[in-house]
Amino acid sequence: MVEVPESLPARMYLLAYDTTRQKMTKHGAHLGYVLRAAALTELYLDGRLGEERRKPVPGTPGDDPYGVLAQIAASRPRSWQHWVRKDSKAIVAAVRDELVRGGWIRVRTRKALGLFPYEQVTVKDPRVVKELWGGASSALRGRPVAHVNSYDAAAVALAAAGDLKTVLPGRDRRRHKRRIEELTARSGPAAPAVRRVIRQQQAAEAGG
Questions:
Q1: Would you state the torsion angle of the CA atoms of residues 157, 158, 160, 161, taken in this order, to the nearest 10 degrees?
Q2: Contact 150/45 with Cβ under 8 angstroms?
Q3: Which residues form a coiled coil (predicted)?
Q4: pTM: predicted TM-score of the whole model, two decimal places
Q5: CA–CA separation, 161 vs 132, rounded Å?
Q6: Contact indicator for 80, 55 with CB cutoff of 8 Å
Q7: What is the C-alpha separation between 19 and 134, in angstroms, rounded?
Q8: What percent of the chain has pLDDT over 70?
Q9: DSSP character for 9?
Q10: How far apart are CA 58 and CA 122, in angstroms?
Q11: Cα–Cα distance for residue pair 58/68, rounded to 1 Å
Q12: In CATH, which superfamily holds the domain spanning 8-202?
């Protein structure tokens, strides 16, 4: 068994890595939304975050590695969509740095066309990504949803909401639509919020 990161945001970051092309497949806001939702989902599954009137509220005190719980505790009640959007770019950097410190990835600065700097992310051991993908893939098949590992179920739900094709190609999303809905229902409100945020963004861009 290959060791994988414990945190759900770290797992989702690695699942956005294309081992064939050896690069990240999701950049910008969408990856940030997925990672914010992963942080919210982790808190929700562990009972550190609850829900009242369709809004997240603090639950049992505990670790808050990305500061999300502190933000919610200090704020008036706001929607899940609000917290998915909040600091979505900052969490990409935070999770990336966490993975660098843990020795999971290497980040180098390159220049496109010799002019434009960008970050090249390389996963040091592609087997880690394959192990995570295997967990998500098995969540789509086999055992009853109630018996699926909670993080594997959440990985599928978040990948579907954020359109992570490295995890769920279009054909799998269509073939396993009902199963994905069941895994999403089990994983809490954050994943559906990602889908709504992305749809709102796409509608705004189309209207603009």
A1: 110
A2: yes
A3: none
A4: 0.93
A5: 17
A6: yes
A7: 13
A8: 98
A9: H
A10: 36
A11: 10
A12: yeast vps74-n-term truncation variant domain like (1.10.3630.10)
